[in-house]
Amino acid sequence: MVKKKKSIKEKDLILINYTAKIKETDTVIDSNISETIEEHRLINSISGPTLLIIGENWMLEAIDSFLKGKKEGKEYSIEVPPERAFGLRDSKKLTVVPLRRLLKQGINPVIGNSLELDGRLGIVRSTSSGRVTIDFNHVLAGKTILYDIKVIKIITDLKERIKALITRRIIEVEDDLYQLDIDKENNLIIHFPEEAFYLQGVQLNKRGIASDIRRFISEIKNIHYLEDFSEM
Question: pTM for this structure?
Answer without folding.
Answer: 0.86
